[in-house]
Amino acid sequence: MLSPADRALCARDPALPGLAAVLDADRLSALAGQGALRPIYLRYKPGTSCVLGVVADDGAVLAAMTYPPARYAEVRARPSWWTGPDAVRFLDAICTALVPLSRDRHLKAARALRTPARRQAFLQALGLEGAGLTVLRYKPGRRLVMRADLPSGRVALIKAHGTRDFAGALAGAHHAGPPPMAVSRRFRCIVLPWIPGEVLDPARHGPEGFHQAGALIARLHGMAVPADLRPDAPDPRADAAAMAALLPDLAVAATADAVARALPGSPICAIHGDFSADQVVIGADGPRIIDWDRLAAGHPARDLGRFLARLDADAAMGAITPEVAQAAGAALLQGYGTVAALPDGIAPCRAAALLALLPEGFRARHPDWPALARALAARAALLVTPGLARAQDGDAMAAPLAQALRRPQADRPAVTLLRHKPGRRALLRYDLPGAAPILGKLRAKGPDRRTPALHRALRAAGLDGTAETGVPAALGEMGALWLQEMVPGRVLTDLLRPGGATDAARLAGRALARLHGVAPGALPASADRRWTLEDEYRVLDRALGQAATADPLAAPRIAGIRDAARQALAALPPEAPVGIHRDFYPDQILIDGGRAWILDLDLFTQGDPAIDLGNFLAHLDEQGLRAHGSITALEAQGEAFLSGYAARRPLDRPRIALLRRVSLARHIWLSRIIPGRGGTTEALMEHCAAWSWGLTEGDEGLGGLWPDGVMRAGITASDTFSFCRQSLTNEFSESNGRRS
């Protein structure tokens, strides 16, 4: 029976009319008119094919291959598939072919089993005359593993490969493990001696077996690297993209980016390439590592990370408990440490392996494969944010919180993860008995001393919330985690709607003016960083470059926007810097009656005040376009925001208008990477392209895109052409990447 996620997948892929049947082995067997089919392998390429390896009741091994109608017609026309007792069966109603093992077009060894005479010649070529064969594993078109049995007992393991993988498997067989008994290049087969014993199993074997496995892999890592080994090159971004086709709402792109950035590059050594507990056999003479098909040159942490990730997956699927997985992993690392120092980078390599395992539940036809994928993705995200696991552990945090907050009693807090940008930062809520909730801000790269000091300085300068503007109080620091009060109020974004009240937006403008007005001498020395318009352009250039790469057809338009922005930024006169938020938009404001709380000051710097003003207004434009279908839907709130600011500080409306549109152009890329915003990409490009190159003298074709205040200030269309080249760079910051 198909799960809801399976049905949703089939609905998204109408190009494969047989997908639903191939994903449901019971339905497939009914349509084929034969007994039960047991799935052993699944490979899915959206819109192209789905291949299911199955074993029938009578032991026959088959592959069910479903294609789009046009491709199915080509497959069905193969003359060789229609003849003989092992002819392919065609299920025309669902564009699916049932292909016997002996008809596999890419595995010569499989075709050698077609008749008794061919089978005997095949075994004779391998030196296994008279042997009986048992299929152990089958990946249609890629790999076939068989056990060869003689009257004397199990004697050999036969591995047959497709063209792509044979050379690598042969290199692995020659450089590691027992020497091959025979090699047939004709059949692309490697014959290996059978290794008696049982597979290392965390549910049945104690820590000693994992300790020994760790020592064995460490010895491999110490050997010289053969010149003919393939490079091991994990690609977490590609793994995340592939998973998006299966489960579009699984947001793992940010985790994949963080993992890719954190993966270690050197040193390089010989690695197993597919190391896990089921690649270790416990025999009478101790454990031995098997299956060297993926022997490669790579970082040693990749073997350890893959082994640990497989334990994580087994625990997520319920095969073992988390405690058993943890004990087995610890023993593995301890055993490794008895031979060599543990390599750096195990955590990101483990996270990369988890991302590669995301489709595992789908392939294994786990009944709730989406939940399994989400569990593995969450584990991967945790691994690339050091300290997050401990910060989420209420028992571990009880004593440190009591010490940091100077509480007499170490109570266990309830912990809620509010926000997480993998590899960068996390926001947590701690609820302690009899106390107001507090927030913890964790920074992956280490302690943030600067932001708590800034909060204290700003509150001392009057932004303590006693009047209409405040920043939360810093309450304590605990390594990479610092604590702040959780202030009351509603997020400004939730208060903005077309035709709605404008008081909250006006209050936000006054709050920003208050922040910009803090005297430099009141700020800590660590707040003296500078952010220039050149920095703004670099951020924009990177964002638009990524957008152009993602959409080559739009690249010329995007290049025009980028070039216009660069020229306009270069032409803009300098502005006296003030302390700016640098990521100011409605989500960063809480409205508590007549008070505005300013949040997330991590990027605070010295810079052009119009950067904050333009960024805020651009977010209103984007929100209006996305939520209400019009880029001017929240124009009244934008004007109220500016009027609130103008009540305390002067406005340079032309400069703000330019930076507003520059910031809006950055959303071209953000719309592609933030879930739920893809529908605005084309509209954003149209707006930005219009004022990048489409305006001529006297043209006001943008209509409501420009605030009335800009036109009242005497800015002509030709002025806007140059203005808008300037500000397309409101920083594609880590915070903006979160929700910009």
TrEMBL record:
- InterPro entries annotated for this entry? Aminoglycoside_PTrfase (IPR002575), Kinase-like_dom_sf (IPR011009)
Supply the Gene3D superfamilies for this chain. Answer: 3.90.1200.10
Question: Where is each Aminoglycoside phosphotransferase domain found?
Answer: 134-341, 469-651
Name of this chain's protein: Aminoglycoside phosphotransferase domain-containing protein
Q: What is the organism field in this record?
A: Paracoccus aestuarii
